[in-house]
Amino acid sequence: MLRSMVRDMPHSHTLNRRDWLKLGGLSLGALVSGAEPNLARLLAAQESRGGSAPDRDFSVILFWANGGPSHLDTFDLKPDAPAEIRGPFRPIKTNVTGIHITEHLPRLAKLADKFAIVRSLHHNRAEHSGGTHRFLTGYPSLAANLNDAEYPDIGSIVSNELNHRAGEVPIYVSNTKFYGSGPGYLGPRCAPFMPVANPLTSTGANSYDPVRLHQIGENRAGLNLDPDGTVTLRRRDDLRRALDTLPRALDDRSGPTAAFGEHQRRAVELLAGPRTRTAFDLNREDPRLLAKYGDSVWGRDLLTARRLIEAGARFVQCQANLRLRPATGQITTWDDHSVNVDIFRAYEERMPILDRAVSALIDDLFDRGLDRHVLFIFCGEFGRTPRIESQDASRRPGRDHWPRAMSVLLAGGGLQMGQVIGRTNARGEEPADRAMDSNALLATIYHRFGIDRDRVYRDRSGRPIPILPECEPISELLRRFGT
Question: What is the pTM assigned to this prediction?
């Protein structure tokens, strides 16, 4: 693959394999390849764009429960429904009168004044990648089980719209690629920076080891280029040691880096910069805060996401995958069919970890005054079926895909918290009040970024396409701070 990338390079000087700089196990050859990684292209695009001016402070942390979390067992319980609908979990009161959530999220129940729940979003795609594509791009895909997006997802739009203001940290960061998402026709320059991406996450696989956003000693890394052109960190050498070697290499203008173009050099400088290295270094955090987030992948990932946002990232997304006990099920996603998992045992394992990590992040955002500008989102591509199903001989309970209703948890972002927006019917089947296309959430986020969602792009065939089909933001969220 490396040789073919060199052969196809448009540069007048073709580098051979030995010319590619390797320092501390960090291979930088990918940064001069013809495909050009997203960071290099991102830094190359400098022209300003029309539309409303971006909010300099607004950022998003998206914690993505890929597979589809059950609204009926988390944020929209139906205690009066028949047993085959309601399940075994009971709702508990929160610190906001009238708001109830599952009994397995007691820490979050004490923070309801700091979050909002939207219960009436819906769309029309019931397969994982198609649902993810529809939810994160706003457009239905032509293909059903697509690995890569046909239209750009929201993070890629943010990267494209704000790339002329790229700072010392990548604008768009992700732990790995989502199934059915990606930059679409915008190309690799708008893909996220991914520390240790796993290609399985962009397939129909529902069982793979959780991909960390945070970096620890056992994460061995080296810069490389994925087939889709995304700069990632591979497991070759310790992240911090590897990045520490880069400034010395860049100072050597006679070596292989002399062939770097201006934007490739700036991309490397960005990755080698102190802000990026510091953001990934959890050793700099107060041990008491680390303990508050919990000794879990989710806790450390969300803390890293907050650090990246403070360092200058604008859109950080992370899959919420968890390795369950074998007796519970073999999946690591939230695809809780009965053939995959006992859904209620799975939630009994996931919920305490989610409760601790998310409540710690929400408290952290508010304690630091970041709640006015940083929006945290927890959701997946759809909800789960109201009726509990048992599809195999084990007779264990599960729920299937259900895009007609879902719940989304939001915190901060300068939005109006302490409320529930919308209502589903008595069985959680569909919205009964304030029904909204899921694009309303995208419209709200674009509004806060100051991105003109009517702005027209052109796809690979030259066809004009607005950033988002016509849809209004969620007005109930926009009451605070005059937004």
Answer: 0.82
